[in-house]
Amino acid sequence: xxxxxxxxxxxxxxxxxxxxxxxxxxxxxxxxxxxxxxxxxxxxxxxxxxxxxxxxxxxxxxxxxxxxxxxxxxxxxxxxxxxxxxxxxxxxxxxxxxxxxxxxxxxxxxxxxxxxxxxxxxxxxxxxxxxxxxxxxxxxxxxxxxxxxxxxxxxxxxxxxxxxxxxxxxxxxxxxxxxxxxxxxxxxxxxxxxxxxxxxxxxxxxxxxxxxxx
Length: 214
Fold this sequence. Notes:
10 helices
């Protein structure tokens, strides 16, 4: 992968600091795959340039702080940030509108799913903060729970695959496809439950209107 080859010499030279900074950049919506960043951090640990457990801790700190900054910016500055040229390239109107729709439809669970969707993660967390309908504790729990699943998978995959990169990239692709499949299934289930609840509310409202007044 081109991104992997680009990151390897930087991470090998600057270690934890480079990994942490790159994950912060990912949190701001820059199109650098977070999974490849974490896998590369695991690879340099597997090559002896870092400790894998410390790399896991650095990975958790990087993704949580990056996401938390975006949530906090949405909470404190909201619409003013969207007008800034730099942010408008990341928080495009299309992405922002899509994030708002997903947030309104699925509620707080979209913050869990967003961790696995790089294109939507930044606008979803920004929208969650700007809406003032989600507490910081709720965001931290949902995003942290998702990060505890994704971060160790990628870091330790890189660590154990450092000496067999063909196998590592094959597993990486399988994980990516499996995650997308699980997310699609989850979206279908949540969407069906939302539709069913909506139909029940409509039926209840219709029954109430049909009842003659006493």
